[in-house]
Amino acid sequence: MLIKTYGCTLVGIHALTITVEVNIDQGVNFFLVGLPDSAVKESQQRIDSALRNNGYRIPGKKIVINMAPADLRKEGSSYDLTIAIGILAASEQINAPNVGDYLIMGELSLDGGLQPVTGALPIAIEARRKGFKGFILPKVNAREAAIVNDLEVYGAQNIREVIGFFKGENTLQKEIVDARQEFFSGLNSYEFDFSDVKGQENIKRSLEVAAAGGHNLILIGPPGAGKTMLAKRLPSILPPLSLHEALETTKIHSVAGKLSRKQALVSVRPFRAPHHTISDVALVGGGSYPQPGEISLAHNGVLFLDELPEFKRTVLEVLRQPLEDRVVTISRAKFSVDFPASFMFIASMDP
User: Does domain 185-349 have CATH number 3.40.50.300?
Assistant: First the structure.
C-alpha cells in the first residue's frame, strides 16, 4: 500500500515541503531513498525501537521510502515522526485517511518521546502557504509555530499521542498563541538598560546620535572605561521592533536553534558579541549545509566586536560586503542561500 506523508526541509531561512512516500509490498528489506544524510538513514533504528515500545512494529516486508524531491539533500533527524506515521498507515496498523492533510515533523526517542526540531516557524509558514490543514510537531516547539495564524498547530509529547490523534481520539490539544499579545508583552524587556549608566554624558550623547541614525560606531578608551558596559545597553535605546521585524528575526533564530523553549517570538532587538577567536564562517554563516552566522543572528539588532584589533584580518574583511548590502549570500556548487544581515556595527578597542 502506498501512503504519502509530508515534512519540510530548510533552505536558508525558508522551508520547502518534502513528500515522504511509503510503499509496502511483498518481499523483505528496508530502502530509504531521496538523498538522505546519515541522521535520516539512522531513523530506521529509532523508529523500530519507538514503535515496539508503544505496541506497534515495522512490518517484515519490503518497505521503500522515497523523500521527494529526490535531488535535494535531506538532513537531520526531524523526519523520524513523518516516516513512522507513514509506515503505520501504509501497513494498515492505523487507519489514517486524513494523514496527508497535516505536515508532520519530530525526532523520535527510543521510547517514542518527541525531541525538539529547528525551524518550526518557517516550516509553519510553509505549511500555511501550501494549504495544509494543520502542523503536528513536538510540544516544546508548538508555541513558536502557533504564531502563524490560519493554521492548526498541535504539540505532541510522544508518538502515542500522534497515533491517537489520527485514530480520532482527542489526544492532542490545539496550541493557540496571540501573536500581537506575545509581541507586545515582551517589547522592551531588555536585560541591560541605558538608564543604568550614571555620568558619561559625552559618550551617551554619541550613542544616542548613532542609535537615532543607525550609524556604526567605534569606542576607544582604556580598560575599565565602560566601553562594553555601554555597548550592551545600546539596544535598549534603539526603536522598538515592528511585528514584521520580530517575525523575521525569530525565523533566523529558529533556523539556528537559538530560541528558548518558552520563547515564541523575539520581541527585543538582538545583541551579539562573538569572541575574538571566531572564524570567518562562524561570523558570516556557511558550512557544508549553510547555517546563519553571527551577523545574521544580529539582524535588526547590534553586532558588537570587543577588542577589535584582536580579530583575525580575514574575519574583518568578510564584513565589508554584508555591511554595505545588508545581506550575505552563501554560494555552493548546486545552490546559493541568502541570509539577511541588517545590523548596527559597534566595535571597541584600547588606545
Answer: yes
